[in-house]
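Sat 14:20. Reprocessing the chain from the morning session after the first attempt stalled halfway. Input below, unchanged.
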Amino acid sequence: MIIDAHSHLGYDVAFDLDNDENLLIENCKKYGVDGAIVQPFIPRPYVEDYKAIHDRIYKLTQNKERKFWGMSSMNPHFRIEEYAEETERCVKELGFVAAKLTPIGHAVNPASRDGLACCDVVRKLGIPLMIHTGNGGSFADPIQVAKVAEEFPDLVIVMAHAGSGGGSIGTASYIARTHDNVYLEPSWVDIAALEGMLKEVGCSKLMFSSDVVDNIPVELAKYRTAVKKETDLERILSGTAVEVFGLK
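Finished this time. Tokens:
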């Protein structure tokens, strides 16, 4: 089984990217991906725009061709009441399994006042939080995730991209090894770095993801090249995500 732990839907105003339902479904079918956790690309900074893309993701989760789950994403600089209300709606009414913070797209340090307030909302809802790391300057440095993990030891955190692109892959691996509540999602990490992660943190803390649909075959080839044991490969391609996000 293959579960993509990090995929997107909608139009991204920060990076000028677009991904629709048909493209996502067809690429999952083409490359044998059984299901995906889908989060919004970054919409315009209005609460109603976030609600609209969350509703669109919910509709995708009703698709019968492939299994999809939702991951909420709200601008962390909204009023905390608005952030909490919409995130709670996504979890309790729409059945979403996680939330996302994107320092590079939302201009937020996860360990800042606004960042920690959002983390506390997610923690109270009892779902994992995915945090973008790597590209994005100091806000996206995995060291900021360490601060969050220590502030909220009962919050499960997934470091998206595992520090890739920001010169901080080693830091991400160290934080995942030394914090029980931190996992790695190593999309865009090269094979050499992935092999280092396998040695340092093991397959039980790693999960497959594409980030963008065109990256699915690249990421699958990376794991199938670097991971030698079939049981370890199964764990990375689906087992870790199933466990961390409580997928059913």
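Strands lie at 3-12, 17-19, 35-40, 67-73, 98-101, 129-132, 157-160, 182-185.
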